[in-house]
Amino acid sequence: MMGIAVQTLRARWVSFAGTVVALVLGVAQVAAMGLLLGALLDLPDRPPQRFAAAPAVVFGNDPQWNPAHHDLGVRSLAEAKGVPADVVQRVAATGEVVLDRAFYAQVEGGDADQVGHPWSVARFGGYELAQGRAPTADTEIVVSGSSGATVGQQVVVLTADGAQPYQVVGVTAPVDFEHAVFFSDTEAARISPRVEAVVALGPVDAVRSAVSGSTVEVLTGGDRHKADVSEDRDREALDNTVTLLPITASVAGSTAIFVVASTFAFAVVQRRREVALLRTVGATPKQVRRMVLAEAVLVGTLASAAGCVLGLFGAQLLARWLISLGLSPSWFGVTPSLAPAVLLPVAAAFLTGVLVALLGAVAASWRAGQVRPIEALRDAAVDRPMTSGRWLLGVGGLAAGVGMVAYVGFAAPEMTLVPNKYVPTLLVPIGAFALLAPVLVGPLTRLIMAPFGGAKGAGAMVVRESALTARRRTAATAVPVLLTVGLAISLLGATDTINEARDSGLRNQVTADYVLAPDGSPGINRAAVERVAAVPGVHVVAPVLTTLYTMDEDRLQENDGYAVEPAALSRTLDLPVLEGSLDDLDDSGIVVAKSWGYELGQPVEVFMADGSTVSLRVAAIYEALRGQDIGYVTQKYAVTGAYARNGLARRAYVSVDEGTDRDAALAAMRTAVAGLGAKVVTTEEMVATEAAVARQLTAVRQRSVAVIVVVFCFIAIVNTLLMATADRRRDLAVLRLAGATPRQVVALFAAESLLVAGIGVVLALMASALNLAGLWIALSGLFGATPVVVPLGIVAGITAVAALLAVLGAVLPTSASLRAHAVALATARE
What we know:
Membrane topology: Multi-pass membrane protein
Helix content: 40-55%
Number of helices: 27
Distance between the termini: 20 Å
GO molecular function, one term: transmembrane transporter activity
Structural class: alpha+beta
Subcellular location: Cell membrane
Oligomer: single chain
Keywords: Cell membrane, Membrane, Transmembrane, Transmembrane helix
Protein name: ABC3 transporter permease C-terminal domain-containing protein
Number of strands: 23
């Protein structure tokens, strides 16, 4: 049967062209996504940077700690502690040492990611003075040439403590791995007592012996890169990509596979008359199935190979697009090679394409091969849209969709806040309605065509009966529209609705009158907080983000923590307390989220970066979402605990006593924070600012998924309509022989394509309504009453383009076919 399959492909290449196009694009999409996901596994192989000229570096390191398995910005306890004082003394006994310290230090008006170091370590990172000299006094600094400061200039440097003037005595040539501000060694030690690393100039073996048994490691050779921040920055730069690509891959891959399978199955169904003739001349069911599967193997192999090649180029284009959106770092990309990270995704995409082609052909070939010859001829003329297998999958999918919506809405509402988990669930109802489309075509056709029942002429009747007679064809052409519009509404609607719910939740939680927000800096320093707190009638809470390490079943766990002023906490934040009271928080207590699993009054052992361990009693337990389950401790632990961050508060909440002149207090606060990298805003302004940042990132992520999926679905719409219309030459001939003019024929096919698009849109609305209903239930439980927000303009635009493409996909092949004489059309080989 392989020979017959080859001859069939040669003779019926037009019918298979649509399948080949869909398969090539589907495999290319899967290959491109796989290649980009593979690229995420390998960070750039960078050489040592900050300690490139150091023979050995003593650095706090936990060999069991894999940063990829932890939140960004969180370090191991060993790295957070730095190099203990006793270890420094033992290493110093082996020879000369140079102590490095790293801390937030920003020249006013400069980059927010500037970092401070003692000048003595500059030489190991390749820093060279371009102008001036080294700092010798505690009031002198050396800056990078990228800072814009010049020798002799007096500048203000912001640190976690506040702002202080310094004299610029030197300028270094800029480097590409950090923006540094260098202080004298004594001034750096005053600002940051913690020792980040030690450059050991003595014998390496002696240094290793000196640190034996401690929490530090001696780094030499390429391992010195562990002390650089670029590895963390590379991982942070990939964070958005890591979040986006799995979502995109799952949604786009599932869409591609579904469209390809549907397209191939539709191509086989179109040839039922040929299959009937083969059965009539003696072909056995097994032979028919083997022929169709052989065609699928040939088409799948050729199209998958082409798709893999296209996927290699597509991955590079997609990487550049993600870089242009600001979602990926500039170095992210895919380089064709024989590396496993390239070969495995390509091989997986190839096998997926062949498998999808086979699966797309199996159901139709089995159905055609099972009937008797006379029944096969009758089946070729009469449309039977739903097989028992499709009924089973469709009903099962719909039940699974309803169950998923109920599960997300009532049992696991927090899933809606985790895109990697939630977005794939949106596909379930859409896929279910796609499978059930043939059975829904009848009712929807009658519903949409009902207003045209009294129209003059037979046009409306012809359009309606054509759709009803060939329900399988109508459903197959409506499914791409369903996928396009359904995914657009579900993805974009979910994005905007979740954003609106988050804004509402933040607005309801913050009860402060005003908020101190960063102004060109990464956070709020202590001086700004103290000056605002000194304003009469004003109370301030400035949570300093830190990390609280606790033991959980003999395993060290890290949790985000806030060091706050207890007296003002309840005045500015409305935490949903379940047990205990925020007023009970003191230096011996801690407030935890319910998800931490502790009980009220239970002691919690917390490990601090200075090497100390404290036992804190649970003073209150509150309800919090995953990702927002933060522990609250007093400001006593701000210094010892602020080892995983820069010692700055993300923002500070300000409340004003009743009877206080608010205008005067506001003016005083704004005067107090002038020049300290902070500004005073209202709660609404803070919510709007943070919402804008969050919305931009979330919108770019979700819209990136939508763009990739919708573009593929647009192609599928045109592809499927071209296949369906090109196969209807007999219908064209019948209409022409019945007296229809070419214009009337084109109008009828255009009207039918609009009907098909309308059916797809209605199915999309039904599936999206199910998705958004579950989302609304979930978010209402998390944040309270939440409106469902759908970007109607964007969705309307996508729907209009889908309808236009559907019309073009029908009109263009129809116009081309009408160039032939009506009799020629009637006698044309199908």
